[in-house]
Design goal:
The protein is an alpha+beta fold. The protein folds into 3 domains: 58 residues, Structural Genomics Hypothetical 15.5 Kd Protein In mrcA-pckA Intergenic Region, Chain A; 94 residues, Alpha-Beta Plaits, CATH 3.30.70; 74 residues, Alpha-L RNA-binding motif (Alpha-Beta Plaits, 2-Layer Sandwich). It is 20% helix and 29% strand. The protein has 6 helices and 18 strands. Strands 6, 9, 10, 11, 14, 15, 16, 17 and 18 form a 9-stranded mixed β-sheet that branches. Strands 3-2-5 form a 3-stranded antiparallel β-sheet. The protein has a two-stranded antiparallel sheet with strand order 1-4. Helix 1 packs across helix 2.
Amino acid sequence: MEKIRITKLLSERKVCSRREAEKFIDEGLILLNGTPVTEQGTRAYPSDRIEITASAKQTQAEKITIMLHKPLGIVSNLPEPGYKEASSLIIQENHWEKDRRPFQELTASLNVVGRLDVNSKGLLLLTQDGRVAKQIIGPTSLVEKEYIVRIQEPIRDRQLAQLREGLSLDGKKLKKAIVERKDELTLLFVLVEGKKRQLRRMCDSIGVEVTSLKRVRVGNIQLGNLPSGQWRYVEPSELL
């Protein structure tokens, strides 16, 4: 049996992300069969006992995930001239007054999980926890993302069937999507993947013009009545 990097094993077991595992190794917080691992690149057999210490678990427990109701005109995480980044809205003044948790100053940076383009709005997640990011946007993720999409004119049954059965983008077949009519000019989409500008490109490919796109759910996390431009903490019970 071949040995595998400990960082990869921990990531596959969803104990921590690879980057987080590297940091824990530097701090001596990973145990291999009871002995602290101190060298990057250390390998182990899948049958070996690999653990993180109580201190590492406490560090993970202190990491936060935030949900923002991203307005139009805000970029998710790539700076563009004349536009604000989503992280700039995570300030005390924008903290939702109905949140269960009180505001606290951030002790580490937040990373966007699943971008929304500048012309889209709705639920945007930001996290300090690499496990959360991998769970939602990792290559094997099947977490659902739900969107409300407004279109320029009524969609035909044939076009609806094309959206549902799976189109191809960039030469690759897309996974099947749930697509339902909510009214004549409104569609509900549920996807389990998130390629760049996927929804808009899917609609463009069959001649359907999107006039508005709003993400309302990621897994168990619902946008609900969170006001535009405001944010709240995501509870552990909301994470999958």
